[in-house]
Design a protein that fits this description.
Layout: H1 17-22, H2 24-29, H3 32-51, E1 55-58, H4 64-73, E2 75-78, H5 87-93, E3 99-102, H6 110-114, E4 121-124, H7 134-139, E5 143-145, H8 152-167, H9 170-178, E6 199-203, H10 207-216, E7 222-226, H11 232-238, E8 240-242, H12 245-251, E9 254-257, H13 271-276, E10 282-285, H14 294-302, E11 308-311, E12 330-332, H15 341-359, H16 375-387
Parallel strand pairs: 1-2, 1-3, 3-4, 4-5, 6-7, 6-9, 7-8, 9-10, 10-11, 11-12
Helix pairs in contact: 4-15, 8-10
The structure holds NADP nicotinamide-adenine-dinucleotide phosphate (NAP) and glyoxylic acid.
Length: 388
């Protein structure tokens, strides 16, 4: 029944001495000496954990200032392999870890959560949390936190960079110039598409969707959007018009999915939606590859049933579908929506601070889930009262 003094899970509530002595079935099985020894070790183990700095492991190597911050506030270690962690590496490091620091590359599923008996907090350095089984974490009383807001502008900027690069064929132009194929202005050289006066369509008027729309104001575009919930303030400020799902595809010249990936949004853009789109339309995806049926997208791009695409995200989170690389009218970036120095530093600090807050018994600032009456917080509070 007892695990000695080191490996006691904090969530298993210890019996108090009176509880122990009143429990007749326990008394039957244990002699007085054992009872005393077990109580001593269990209490000692618990106090050790409460006194000790919490153990945090990062599945990647955070920037040095973040490492220093975590070193000061926790018993901190990280993946020093020089590469991102694979599943086995994460699994091997989970026992004893109370705080787990991950990126969107690290799939934290229910099986991994089960393999982490001491885990109290998972912080992801991303706003998207589709790589974490939040339900399994919640059931285990584990907080999950993410990094909203700080990456909104950087990601909306990249969405626009992709649109402009696709419309004005910038990568093609760059390749032409570098390869020595440029020999001066020509009336028919790399003709693109005009921006102003067109219709920009957004699926999901969340933080990034709205930031994409804000950037459209200077370009004299008409804004339409589709989302589950209408956003009157957004409609007023951006003169945006909510449209039904099929209308979003029918009317958009430039289409931006900007929703989170989950079971309801996965694969939502497929043949029926592509069929509705204009031949001149451009699709820009900075959200998640899984929102779009990628094989179908490749097929319609090959057939030129839409004019082009700017893509930052793919179904495979570790690379791209080979066939996408063969298409000229597609601009591809390697999932760099939030990749500015300023934004990544903010993201890392937010995630690290939330880990420390949770492990000090305070709720995170950026929770993805809600943990009621966490046993960990209760234990910490009891410990504080006892030792005050
Ligand atoms: P957000 O403010 O939470 O917005 C999420 C949007 O998704 C909302 O519009 C929401 O609709 C919609 N949504 C969520 N679940 C839905 C469902 N089941 N059905 C329909 N719509 C649903 O998030 P954000 O900060 O804008 O980020 C959006 C996504 O962008 C992230 O989840 C992430 O995947 C991606 N992202 C990518 C990069 C990159 O590097 N390329 C960087 C940052 C973020 P309602 O308004 O109706 O609630
Ligand atoms: C990036 O894709 C994020 O979700 O932060």
């Amino acid at each position: 029944m007892w695990e000695g003094n080191e490996g006691v899970a904090i969530s298993a509530a210890p019996l108090t001495l009176p509880e122990l002595f009143c429990n007749k079935s326990l008394i039957k099985g244990l002699n007085a000496l054992e009872i005393f020894r077990n109580f001593f070790y269990r209490t000692k183990g618990k106090i050790m954990q409460l006194h000790d700095k919490p153990k945090i492991w990062a599945a990647f190597a955070p920037f040095e200032p973040i490492r220093n911050y975590l070193d000061e506030n926790a018993d901190f270690d990280f993946n020093r392999s020089g590469d991102l962690a694979d599943r086995q590496m994460i699994k091997d490091h989970l026992p004893g870890v109370q705080g787990l620091f991950v990126t969107l590359r690290d799939k934290i599923d229910a099986a991994l959560i089960t393999a982490a008996p001491d885990l109290k907090a998972i912080a992801t350095m991303s706003v998207g949390f589709d790589h974490i089984d939040v339900e399994a974490a919640t059931q285990r009383g584990i907080w999950v936190s993410n990094t909203p807001d700080v990456l909104t502008d950087a990601t909306a900027d990249l969405a626009w960079a992709l649109l402009l690069a696709t419309l004005r064929r910038i990568p093609e132009g760059d390749r032409l110039v570098r390869s020595g194929g440029y020999s001066g202005w020509r009336p028919d050289l790399l003709l693109g598409t005009e921006l102003s006066g067109k219709t920009l369509g957004i699926w999901g008027a969340g933080r990034i969707g709205q930031a994409i729309a804000r950037r459209a104001l200077g370009f004299d575009l008409r804004i339409i959007y589709h989302s589950r919930v209408r956003k009157p303030e957004f409609e007023r400020q951006m003169r945006a018009r909510w449209v039904e799902w099929p209308e979003l595809f029918r009317q958009s010249d430039f289409l931006f999915p900007a929703v989170s990936l989950n079971e309801e949004t996965r694969d939502k853009i497929g043949p029926a939606e592509f069929h509705l789109m204009r031949r001149s339309a451009i699709l820009v995806n900075i959200a998640r590859g899984g929102l779009i049926q990628e094989e179908e997208l490749i097929r319609i791009l090959r057939l030129k049933l839409i004019a082009g695409a700017g893509l930052d995200v793919y179904v495979d989170t570790t690379g791209i579908h080979k066939k996408l690389g063969d298409l000229n009218h597609v601009v591809l970036t390697p999932h760099i929506g939030s990749a500015t120095v300023e934004t990544r530093e903010k993201m890392a600090f937010m995630a690290a601070e939330d880990l420390i807050s949770i492990l000090k018994g305070q709720p995170p600032k950026y929770p993805v889930n809600e943990i009621q009456n966490s046993q960990w917080e209760t234990d910490l509070e009891r410990h504080r009262v006892r030792t005050a």
